[in-house]
Amino acid sequence: MITITYFGNLKDQLHCNEEAIAWESGDTELLLSQLRARDEVWNSALAPEKIFRVVVNDEIIFAPVELKSGDRVAFLPPVTGG
């Protein structure tokens, strides 16, 4: 199992704060691909052209990394200030 947390407007768009999913093997790109395949809302919210960060075990990643059971993944939307 891996735990995925969605923050900010991603949480609102996906109507999901956190979930645990079974995970055998693969990297963060495979995970994103599987999540996007859920439906059009997920595909749009997590589209490659959207600006968001992927965090694995409390570390922002900038390239795909392998995930293993027990990992914690988070998706951070763009932050705007004012």
Describe the largest sheet.
5 strands, mixed
First-last Cα distance: 38 Å
- Low-confidence segments: none
Largest beta sheet: strand ordering: 2-1-5-3-4
The CATH architecture classification is Roll
Secondary structural class? alpha+beta
Report the strand count: 5
> What's the Cα radius of gyration?
12 Å
Query: What percent of the residues sit in helical stretches (DSSP H or I)?
Result: 25-40%
CATH superfamily: Beta-grasp domain
* H/E topology pattern: EHEHHEEE
How many domain units?
Answer: 1
Strand content: 25-35%
**Quick one: CATH class?**
Alpha Beta
Pfam families: ThiS (PF02597)
InterPro entries: Beta-grasp_dom_sf, Mopterin_synth/thiamin_S_b, ThiS/MoaD-like
Protein name: Molybdopterin synthase sulfur carrier subunit
Organism: Ignatzschineria ureiclastica
Please tell me about this protein's structure.
This protein has 82 residues and is an alpha+beta fold. It has one domain: Ubiquitin-like (UB roll), CATH 3.10.20. Helices cover 27% and strands 26% of the residues. It is built from three helices and five strands; from the N terminus they run βαβααβββ. The chain has helices spanning 8-14, 28-36, 40-45, and strands at 2-6, 18-21, 53-56, 59-61, 72-76. A five-stranded mixed beta sheet has the order 2-1-5-3-4. A hairpin with a 2-residue loop joins strand 3 (53-56) and strand 4 (59-61). The termini are far apart. This is Molybdopterin synthase sulfur carrier subunit. InterPro entries: Beta-grasp_dom_sf, Mopterin_synth/thiamin_S_b, ThiS/MoaD-like. It comes from Ignatzschineria ureiclastica.
